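Hi U.,

Before I forget, here's the chain from the pilot set. I'm dumping it here mostly so it's searchable later in email.
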Amino acid sequence: MIGDSLIKAFESYFSKYKKADKTSVIAYCESEFGFKKDGRSVYMDPSNQYRVRFSYSASGTFSNVVLSLSTVLKIDYSPLIVAVIHPNFYELMLCNSTFIEKVSHSSKNLTEQKIRGSFLGSNIIKTWNGIENTPDNFDELFAFHQLIPVEENIARIVEATNGIVSTRKPFRVDKDIYRVIKSALEIPLNAKYSALWQSIKRELDNRTCNRRSEIVLVASREDTNVNIRGNAIEQLITRGKNKHSLGDVEFTVGGLSAAVDIKSVRENKASCPKLYNVDKFLKSLSRLRHHFIYFVFINEQGGIVTNLVNVLDKEMIELTRIQHHWAGRLSRGVTQLDGKFHNLVAGNWQTTYSFDRAKDFVDHLIAVE
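Structure:
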């Protein structure tokens, strides 16, 4: 879980000392738990999984200046936690750009092109899309953060700060684009698509087989959070690249193109994987690009089962949940896979693609504006 080592450090500190101050806590985290300074304002945890900004508040509220927006954006690819030290307790919140409401300090002339100003503790979003910004939810929240383009976060923050309405809009689907999208939905019914699926599955299965022992070793580690494990397995299969775009790897076979997102799943472990940014997905469909999920299921005995599933497969659609992060005005939001998806990686699974169901679902995505 993101923040585990930080929680252990705080619990250890408060078990030994009755009162806390910022200097003493930071020194304790450095000497006893291996946190190291990373730049002027933040610290890196000993396993290099996340960064921490330490702040202090003598009262029960927290309205101090936390960080400059420019600093956040430089390290926004990594989980960023603000650790608020109170005399008798502590609180932790994610403060990546997705969880910043606005910039309240030195924000004059802030625009999407000129990043300036700092945010306060009171500017951190405490509940995001119904999910509390607390350590128990850090893994889930950061997974959603990874789906949201930084440009959209900047536009939202600028508008909330200065009242400047962003020119950014959800991907526009006019009649011509819709016609192309509809034709893309018909492609899975022809033979060329079958060749595309088989070619991608064969290539990714070969890569997985060649790195099987390494994949199992990474999956078995309990000292890293689910995002770190997933990214490490993804890198083994994609040969060292984490794109964090619509797909982790792209293929072109017989004139058809596809983006493939790799999701590793451990047996008996709860998981609700992030899927895709809705606007990016619609734009990809308008370019006749298909989107698959390549599931890598690792059982407790070290066996691996894989499957390649179109995100518009009927069963996938039923398990897809849309998360709206700004009431859909700047973006249609992101999607997440329901936790009851393990049937998709069963050895006897068969595709259930339906043009009518896919079209209905895409129509629903388009309508989310």
